[in-house]
């Protein structure tokens, strides 16, 4: 258990210290206080082994609310600048430093030349690579210089931290490029003891806004998609067309080795007055 001793309540830390003194004091000849009773040790031992009890049916992500939990960013053990420097040793610190785009350049070529302006865009806590880990999943906006077309938002890099150490990150090849804007943690939908992530992306075409979501697992350090990209918000209000409507959905799951997902939509509602 990472940082286990520091996370114990004060009273229990005192009991653990007494136990350690009793064990090591006997071998050094130091006077030792009386050892704790077996019942005391029994109360200490199960702390790390207590399993989580999760509801068999749960809401994975709710896009019908304006108060999204992903808006609260988990704290990191290192600064954003330190994380960015680990991921991109060569990078720019301001978009104004980007040179004019060269014809034929791609997101990959911009990254290779260090023409990126990275920033941390989201972070959530959980156990993502193995059970009972204390990790933080971080979504990093790579910020390639002068992207265009469907690449206009630039790519993203998904990273998992254990303290200040990077224990996993998504690949940098074009096949591994990610374009989601946000993420949320989900408590173990496939009953393997590891939390999953909801990756959320948004797009707009001729005033029709869409949000999609997919769910991935990084158990054992391997990215696996367990729920494919699916529309969860349909908003035609930006078109200003007569009769334009909007609707949103929530994703529910029945937890199992092979989880069953359901997307439940709200009724379409008229757009609010401009």
Strand-helix topology:
Layout: H1 4-7, H2 10-28, H3 38-44, E1 57-62, H4 80-87, H5 107-112, E2 119-126, E3 135-141, E4 156-162, E5 165-169, E6 182-186, E7 196-205, E8 208-217, E9 224-235, E10 245-254, E11 260-265, E12 269-270
Antiparallel strand pairs: 1-10, 2-3, 3-4, 4-5, 6-7, 7-8, 8-9, 9-10, 10-11, 10-12
What's the helix count? 5
E-strand count = 12
- The string of secondary-structure elements, in order, is HHHEHHEEEEEEEEEEE
What structural class is derived from the secondary structure elements? alpha+beta
| Mean pLDDT across residues | 81
| End-to-end gap | 53 Å
Coarse shape: flat
Keywords:
274 residues; alpha+beta; 2 domains; 4-stranded antiparallel sheet; 5 helices; disordered N terminus
Write up what this structure looks like.
It contains five helices and twelve strands. It is an alpha+beta fold and 274 residues long. It has two domains: 1-50, no CATH class; 54-270, no CATH class. The N and C termini lie far apart (53 Å).
Quick rundown:
The chain is α+β, with helices and mostly antiparallel strands. The chain is built from five helices and twelve strands.
